[in-house]
């Protein structure tokens, strides 16, 4: 019953309030008819375009009575953690650390899905050594994960310095809490402090985000330069070489 003038804009509010950590799917359907109740003279037949048939309502005489705009909506339930995980390493050193993360409210999948990998590659090899989460039934829970950065500049700084691998997954069926254990490798070349977000998505639905902070402290002193005075008011000179690791 909403009347629209020519070129008038219609805003449709959509409220999303998920009750569970899963993917919700729905559609917003806009049905437009002429105000005077007349039909459009275009006749829809069995030979008409499939998309056209799906997007019109047909009157008894075969004319187009209404036009449909169908907008699919996928609601992704997201949980954000407030406390940051700090990965700290001295510059020019290499740190290998295990990080344990809890996913609360995981919904079990109905069927087995491809094995988990990172966001770019999903390993479908059945002989993979990557552990699976099982509850004793045929259903398995699989996860995709990726590191997200606040800017391309931070990504360029950390991409070659940080590595992550999912080692182990454990599922508590009663509490519906999945524990993911990651192996994080951090090898900074210079002092820095950068933030990142680890996004973990369950293929059965749900997205969890964990803030990470990568801190590289000052490196150890390379060497001690001793300058011995040759006399009062006389210059003493010592030479040493510096090598750049980049161009």
Automatic annotation (TrEMBL):
CC per GO annotation: cilium
Gene Ontology process terms (BP): sperm axoneme assembly
Domain of life: Eukaryota
Domain CFAP47-like immunoglobulin-like: 78-217
Cross-referenced InterPro entries: Ig_CFAP47
Protein name: CFA47 protein
Coiled coil, from the record: none
Residue ranges, compositional bias (Polar residues): 120-135
UniProt region (Disordered), positions on chain: 116-135
Pfam families in alphabetical order: Ig_CFAP47 (PF26579)
């Amino acid at each position: 019953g909403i009347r629209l003038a020519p070129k008038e804009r219609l805003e449709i509010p959509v409220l999303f309030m998920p009750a569970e950590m899963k993917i919700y799917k729905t559609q917003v359907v806009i049905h437009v008819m002429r105000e005077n109740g007349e039909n459009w003279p275009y006749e829809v037949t069995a030979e008409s375009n499939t998309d056209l048939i799906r997007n019109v309502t047909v009157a008894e005489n075969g004319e187009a009575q209404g036009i449909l705009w169908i907008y699919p909506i996928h609601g992704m339930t997201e949980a954000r953690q407030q406390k940051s995980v700090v990965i700290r390493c001295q510059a020019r050193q290499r740190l290998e650390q295990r990080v344990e993360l809890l996913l609360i409210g995981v919904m079990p999948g109905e069927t087995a899905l491809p094995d988990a990998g990172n966001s770019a590659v999903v390993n479908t090899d059945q002989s993979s050594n990557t552990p699976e989460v099982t509850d004793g039934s045929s259903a398995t829970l699989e996860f995709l994960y990726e590191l997200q950065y606040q800017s391309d500049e931070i990504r360029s700084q950390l991409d070659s310095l940080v590595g992550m691998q999912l080692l182990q997954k454990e599922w508590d069926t009663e509490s519906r809490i999945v524990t993911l254990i990651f192996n994080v490798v951090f090898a900074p070349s210079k002092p820095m402090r950068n933030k990142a977000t680890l996004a973990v998505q369950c293929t059965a639905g749900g997205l969890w985000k964990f803030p990470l902070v990568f801190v590289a402290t000052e490196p150890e002193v390379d060497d001690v330069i001793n300058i011995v005075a040759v006399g009062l008011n006389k210059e003493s000179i010592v030479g040493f070489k510096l090598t750049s690791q980049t161009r």
